[in-house]
Predict the 3D structure of the following.
Amino acid sequence: IKLRSSKKTINFNILKIILFSFFSFLIIISIIVFAFKDYFNINNFLIEVEKKTNLSIVLNQESKFKYYPDIIFSNSSVDIKNESASIFIRESDIKIMKSYWPLSPLNINLKAPVMKVNGLEINNIFIKAKYNNNILNITEFKGNIAEGNFQISGNTQLSELIPFALNGKFNNISLNTFLQQSEIAVWDRLTVKLSSDNFKINGYASNKKNLLKSIEGEINLSGSAYLTTTDEERFGAALLSLLVEKIPSISSLSKSLNFIISKYGNIPTKIKGGVNINNGKIFSDNIQIYNNLGQSKMIASIDILANEIDGKIFLYENNEVFIETSLEGSI
């Protein structure tokens, strides 16, 4: 009888231990969940982001939470905008994940059909990033822009000035579409498409003006150009050549037009070179423009804030400078 009683006592104690452990586990999990729920409160998080970035975030649908195996917040209809920087993202799908380890980062995935930046449309946006200690590490940022596409990675700090450093590449971007959508210029006769296998930029993104003034970087460029000319323009250039004898002052203009039309008119042309960005200006001392018939080199500086260009184009014949022309004024 004593032996049985001992066994019953042992079994009962084991059961108590199991039950106690189970309820302790439930209590601990509940504390963790509620603690993280408060820590991960989406309203607090969004308010913090809005405060540090001047972004306005609107949740068009009810958000969803999951607490196992990680904390996951999701919302499939979020509008994000920054009026001072002319940024607007509509109907984005956001998912934010965090493990239960206190020091772990927030993992952020964002998809959006369209993003507008100062009038420029960027389609099929995808952003993958990690956020921790006010640092946003962008693992991947890609999308379609101006008939081409881009891929970017880098980091930014959500502080007052919002410093950032990015690197990446872009492919087959139409300069014509870029300028037109940005309401900078409309080019009807010259078509330019640009690519870069490597670019690096950094600056401060607290507002549009500060961004344009502070941005610095290097961009390797390659691409294509196509100058559309008509028979009437060819005839006009030929007629101008005939008038040179009577009006010597138009000799330089006549030579330039004849060279450009005969070497580049309606002929596929390649572009190669590099540009630097500093103090609100884009500049280059060696952009090559060439095809089987002609070769040119452009040296130019573009004021980003004023949208003005100041430069020169050297037209080559037999590997020597044949004509030097100036580029000045509004883009």
About this structure: DSSP finds six helices and 16 strands in the chain. The helical segments are 2-39, 42-53, 175-181, 208-214, 231-243, 251-264. The two ends are 103 Å apart (CA to CA).
